Amino acid sequence: MAKQTHNPKVAVTLSLVPGLGQLYNRHYLKGATFLLLTISFILFFYQFLNIGYWGLLTLGEIPRLDDSRVLLAQGIISLIITGFAITFHVLNLLDAYKEAVKFQQGVRPDSLRKRFRAGWNKSFPYILIGPGLFLLIFVVIFPLLYMVSIAFTDYNLYNSPPKNLLNWVGFENFISLVTVPIWRSTFFSVFLWTVIWTLVATTLQIALALILAIFVNDPRIKFKKFIRTVLILPWAVPAFVTILIFAALFNNDFGAINNDILGPLFNQAIPWMTDPFWSKIALIGIQVWVGFPFVFAIFTGILQSISKDWYEAADMDGASSWQKFKSITFPQVMFATAPILIMQYAGNFNNFNIIYLFNQGGPAVRGQNAGGTDILISWVYNLTFETQNYNMAAAISIIIGLIIAGFAFYQFRRTRSFKEEGEM
Amino acid sequence: MLSKSYVSAGFLILVFSILLSACGPQREVSQNEEEQSEPEKPEELTLWAWEDTKTAFQEVGDKYTEETGIKVNVVAAENADISLDAPAGRGPDLFYETHDRIGDAYLQGLAAEIEITDEQLKGYQQSAIEAFTVEGKLLGIPSSVETIGLFYNKELVPEAPQTIEEINEIAEELTNTDEDEFGFLNITSDFYPTFPFLTAAGGYVFEKSEQGGYDTSDIGLSSDEVVEGAEMIQSWHENGYIPESLTYDVMNGLFREGKVGAIISGPWGIPDFEEGLGDKLAIAPLPTYKGKQLESFLGVKGLAVSEYSENKYWSTDFALFMTNTANSELLFENTKRLPAREDVSIESELYQGIQDQLQYADPTPNIPEMAQVWEPMGDALVFIGEGEDPQEVLKEAEATIKEQNSLLGGDN
């Protein structure tokens, strides 16, 4: 019969119009469904995609009538829809090709019922993932793309839609960030503090957690459960409550730290809130307090799982406590927790709560447009909500995103290497 | 396997077909709106107000319905939403706004220029009209005005102090920090109530330009006159009249309890103080400095017509109706906000002091650049209170304001 004449290439070519290839493969119901879906897709989305792509390219032509923000959103949604369409189209082409090959080899299609069942079984996981994925695309990916787009426009206070149209400006915002003097000085000083903050605050909280965990784990310590519970307590109080209370304690004039501790004991007051240096010290202290219990809990768990035999063996060899710590405890703890610790660094890099709640990134610093303790993320907040510098805020957000992505990438690498070694 | 060229050809065709079809919306641009003297009446108008004024506004709206047959819907809403809602067709016809936000609304093109005759503008306070004018365009009808005054406790201070010297005398006489008793208090770390004292000898935020706007490159907050004012404020702290870390809560609380002779506050504080002090509360205009009345900031609230309203004529008409003489009086009854009209007299001894001061009040600049002034000036005032050199601190604050404002527009 059509055994020799049935050509997969023809099927694929026909399938450029979804459905035709399937009809050629004698999958009539499938072909008809594909064709119908294609036609309804075009009818339904043609106008939307048309305006969407036009909007994405031009961001509108007539001020007031065209709202660049809405057009940009529609353009991005159009891109997403096109992405879906291309995915389905490729699946359709592959389907046409595979079925045609089968047909060519003389395999005749199964009964409709059988094929339907096979299809259902094959796609079942995707059907389950589908709704979540769909939601994720519109709730996470879409805003992300929108933010990335804003970074390449000129959206600021003086160029606000709907009165004005936005324009694509390429990398201009990123260039001004490193070339315009006040942007540059602010960006680098904020960036530097963000890095110092991340390294110092996180390392200290990990170090404190490690020391406490080792002490509490020492066999000579009594009431272990009680001490552990107390040490975990800062974790039980919501962080924002802790921060607000500390902000009150550190208040220059009314705070207990100046009035009841430093005043009576040393007869002096430290300007915690108004001097950038002391504000930074206070912030790091608070973060260590808020952050150490989590790490402490993890370390405690790991310390308990380290085999006692190793320490006994070390004792037999006459190892000192320091040697035992250096060669057994520390490597064991770090090896197991490195990925989690790295995410602690990433978390502090973006720790908006503590910076904002303590004193809104203040105190003010001469010659820069961010406060003395502002980290990148709280600076972005100010740029967005105080000065409506949406374009610059978006540009900085992208930079933050890339750095965090770096952390995450490293973490996944670490996690995998850990797993592989575990499987050995 | 499937040859790759087929797949890529498929992609190309798809992409091209999309690009080819992407020719944008087909539309005819017709900008010639027909000018009618009195357009047809709409069925209803929507006014976005704030929660606390909703009821009072609805009452006036109902009166308007009786008169014209146009229904008025007063909705408590967030004005920040107008930017997205109005272009999408879900916005109001009118919105209630403070004058210092109107520059922002103008930049976004949300408030329509109000076209009315000089005849219709009669009766409104000139300064209130000015407050709603941006680049020579009137963007709102003022409904109420407010400014600060000298609130005093008649038991401690029988006669309203007329001059700053008298205020200093009261402070010297009554202040006893151990007993939490004070002669005169003001939140000197807040630029708003401290501005009159800072500029007692002269000074300004932004110089007014000839076109009626402001010249943001000309800031007048570090001149010798302002330094003179700053030194005066500094002396209050040095002499121990005003504690450095004074907050509104503390000040208002102490004044309510009758422990403070006089404070600087605004009409919003009246109900609370009246409750605490009763008949002892009195309000006077700000004092004079070297024979010159202190000038305070004027705050104006009013009604703006949305650029996206289809009924601008009737929206304006309603805004005028709501702020006419009779309704201004009604609104004062219900909201206790002083009408922005010259031809309404409020018979209230307490509010008289504020009203007297209104003649010496100048609107806070209504341009968005003003938003960058409050924080640096507040910081500067804190430093001044802590005893740092006023000249230096004020120069720094000025530089910060200029820098911040230069950043608003990116690099232009």
TrEMBL record, chain A:
Where it mainly occurs, coarsely classed, is membrane
Q: Which GO terms describe its molecular function?
A: ABC-type maltose transporter activity
Q: Tell me which residues make up the ABC transmembrane type-1 domain.
A: 191-411
One GO location term (cellular component): maltose transport complex
The record, for InterPro entries, names: MetI-like (IPR000515), MetI-like_sf (IPR035906)
Signal peptide limits: none
- Topology of this chain in the membrane: Multi-pass membrane protein
Q: Which Pfam families match?
A: BPD_transp_1
Entry-linked PANTHER family: MALTOSE/MALTODEXTRIN TRANSPORT SYSTEM PERMEASE PROTEIN MALF, MALTOSE_MALTODEXTRIN TRANSPORT SYSTEM PERMEASE PROTEIN MALF
Protein name, UniProt field:
Maltose/maltodextrin transport system permease protein
Automatic annotation (TrEMBL), chain B:
Spell out the family assignment given in the record's similarity comment.
Belongs to the bacterial solute-binding protein 1 family.
Q: What is this protein called?
A: Maltodextrin-binding protein
**Biological process annotations from GO:** maltodextrin transmembrane transport; maltose transport
Listed under GO cellular component are: ATP-binding cassette (ABC) transporter complex, substrate-binding subunit-containing
Q: Does the keyword Transport apply?
A: yes
The record's subcellular location field reads:
Cell membrane
Q: Which molecular function GO terms apply here?
A: carbohydrate transmembrane transporter activity; maltose binding
Major localisation: membrane
Query: Can you tell which superkingdom this protein's organism belongs to?
Result: Bacteria
Listed A to Z, the keywords are: Cell membrane, Lipoprotein, Membrane, Signal, Sugar transport, Transport
Topology relative to the lipid bilayer, per the entry, is: Lipid-anchor
